[in-house]
């Protein structure tokens, strides 16, 4: 029975992380946002209140990526 509980808890945690990330990045995919919200309940309600839409930050983690540095055009 412990394996089943661990699997359900793992899905719950991943759904919460997924929903928070999609909310922070303003992901337009409605189907996955609804599924992750439902599977992550009640934690996804906390994400709904704590993570600002499109802020690129979820629970203090910066989700934005710095642009790649320009490569110099050097002959090889």
Polypeptide structure, described:
With 76 residues, the protein is mostly helical. It is built from 3 helices and 2 strands, in the order αααββ. A two-stranded antiparallel ribbon has the order 1-2. α1 crosses α2 and α1 packs parallel to α3. The protein starts with a helix and ends in a 14-residue tail after the last strand.
Structural key phrases:
76 residues; mainly alpha; two-stranded antiparallel ribbon; 2 strands; 5% strand; extended
Rg, nearest Å = 17 Å
Please list the strands of the largest sheet in the order they lie side by side.
Answer: 1-2
Structural class: mainly alpha
Topology as a string of helices (H) and strands (E): HHHEE
Distinct helical segment count? 3
How many domains make up the coordinates?
A: 1
N- to C-terminal distance: 60 Å
**Low-pLDDT residue spans:** none
Average residue-wise pLDDT: 85
Shape: extended
Write the layout of secondary structure elements.
Elements: H1 2-24, H2 30-39, H3 43-50, E1 57-58, E2 61-62
Antiparallel strand pairs: 1-2
Characterize this entry briefly.
With 76 residues, the chain is mainly alpha-helical.
């Amino acid at each position: 029975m412990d394996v089943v509980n661990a699997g359900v808890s793992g899905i719950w945690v991943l759904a919460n992380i997924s929903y928070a990330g999609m909310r922070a990045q303003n992901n337009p995919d409605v189907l996955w946002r609804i599924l992750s919200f439902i599977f992550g309940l009640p934690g996804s309600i906390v994400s709904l209140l704590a993570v600002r839409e499109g802020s690129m930050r979820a629970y203090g983690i910066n989700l934005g990526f710095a642009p790649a540095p320009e490569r110099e055009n050097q002959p090889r």
